[in-house]
Amino acid sequence: MLLQDVKGRRYLITLEAGATFHTHKGRLAHDQLIGSAEGTVARTDMGQKLLVLRPTLADWVVKMPRGAQVIYPKVLALMVMAADVQPGMTVAEAGTGSGALSIALLQALAPGGRLHSFERRPDFADQARRNVERWFGKPPDGFELHEGDVVEGIGTVGPLDRVLLDLLEPWLVVPGAAEAVRPGGVLVCFVATVPQVMRLAEALESSARFGLVETSEAIFRPWHVDGLAVRPEHRMVGHTGFLVSARRVDGPWPSPGRVP
Q1: CATH number reported for the structural domain that contains residue 145 in this entry
Q2: CA 223 to chain centre
Q3: Which of 90, 86, 60 is nearest to 72 (CA)?
Q4: Whole-model pTM?
Q5: What is the longest distance spanned by two Cα atoms in the chain?
Q6: CATH code: domain of residue 26
Q7: Rounded distance, CA 74 to CA 72, Å?
Q8: For 97-126, what is each residue's pLDDT tens digit?
Q9: Are 23 and 97 members of one domain?
Q10: How far is CA 89 from CA 11, 43, 107, 114, in A?
């Protein structure tokens, strides 16, 4: 449950019978919220007003327990859209991290889709599994979490419709992805630095198995709107990373710089 006070502060809680939510302005019994309608206003025993809503995935991603750093909502949305993920597809992702991208992909793939997620660190995989199951309320259908290296494992889960990567060295996956992804399929990678972009683009183009290699920067600029006070927020994340996307072709396909 997501609670918001009149000053915009947000609190994410899991409702439990008999439990109590505490703020500096009083207490609120969970029993008062269980079974209540979404969008109502609750009051603590000291009269503090709290708006009661179910959290969106964007709310959950920002506040959920994590082992690894999560991909933030604005980038999740861009990745899922760039990859054109649709219900019923078979998709691979790596690394799972805390499971934020996994949840977004599973929602886009339902019904009937399948997600193969690779994570090398067992502690991250455990946390991701808990986050995914907590969001859906159960182990979701079509989700298989592989504890291992995607470079070695991607060839065992194909054929694939899409591959999405959040890795330090995604170019190492390019040869395996070229074999595992169906012609016409999409590869989308999230990377943080320009050198990573350059090396990844070079690997995609030199493979001659991918076309339409494109790079974009993920920038999101919040604004403060309060009456006549309308301005960009004083504090914002000016840069969170780059998206590199490519389409699997039934090659060989030359890169633009190698066309005679």
Answers
A1: 3.40.50.150
A2: 23
A3: 60
A4: 0.87
A5: 76
A6: 3.10.330.20
A7: 6
A8: 999 999 999 999 999 999 999 999 999 999
A9: no
A10: 35, 45, 12, 6
